[in-house]
């Protein structure tokens, strides 16, 4: 499930160590307005978004969820069931081919626990060294987002994201 | 499971295959690629029922599972979806 604007705003605010009142003060709005944004009862206007991004030290893209997710730890009570999570592997090769692989985390868990070596995608060198066991440990500890990003010597770009 | 191969100029191919049949194609492919007595293949065969079950459960929850999607630089589009 995609993270909502309100949840993302609350997460970024807490990451920055700010209270709703402090954010409201910097934006010259009421704390209730910030609370409403985080509860998805209303949304800030464009000027508010720009100021918010400055206050929180992120880009507007990241604030509205357009930017690729940075890895973050989900609190234990907000974590999704592993059965509902997906591991996405994207490979953008230099010759212009784009490969997208989606693996349900439940499947990955079965394979990792069995100790079977993960097959490389069409011999892609960059994927061979990814430690899926380590990735599974991170997922179980509640870390989601972009966990791996590789720019290989031959120009391929590989990303492993969990959501 | 459906395999779609949509080429830019050539034919558009759609292959429907029961998941139960597809899993044996995966085993066959793994055996061909492996060396004799490859422990990975033996373990993989043992895991298949669990993997298929987990995939079916995921599809039931999410409607579909696009396992692989490839867009080539020359415009071909290959999709493997359960």
Structure, explained:
- The complex is a heterodimer of chains A (163) and B (82).
- By secondary structure, chain A is α+β, with helices and mostly antiparallel strands.
- Chain A folds into 2 domains: 5-67, lambda repressor-like DNA-binding domains (434 Repressor (Amino-terminal Domain)), CATH 1.10.260; 77-162, no CATH class.
- Helices cover 41% and strands 19% of the residues of chain A.
- Chain A has helices at residues 5-16, 20-27, 31-38, 46-56, 60-64, 105-114, 125-128, 132-140, and strands spanning 72-73, 86-92, 98-104, 143-151, 157-162.
- In chain A, strands 1-4-5-2-3 form a 5-stranded antiparallel β-sheet.
- In chain A, helix 2 crosses helix 3.
- The longest helix of chain A is centred in the N-terminal third of the chain and has 12 residues, at 5-16.
- The model of chain A has no long low-confidence stretch (mean pLDDT 83).
- With 82 residues, chain B is α+β, with helices and mostly antiparallel strands.
- Chain B has one domain (2-81).
- Helices cover 48% and strands 26% of the residues of chain B.
- Chain B has 2 helices and 4 strands, in the order E-E-H-H-E-E.
- Chain B has helices spanning 19-33, 39-62; strands at residues 2-6, 12-16, 66-71, 77-81.
- In chain B, helix 1 runs antiparallel to helix 2 (39-62).
- Chain B is globular, with a radius of gyration of 15 Å.
- The mean pLDDT of chain B is 82.
- Chains A and B meet through strand 3 and helix 6 of A and helix 2 and strand 3 of B.
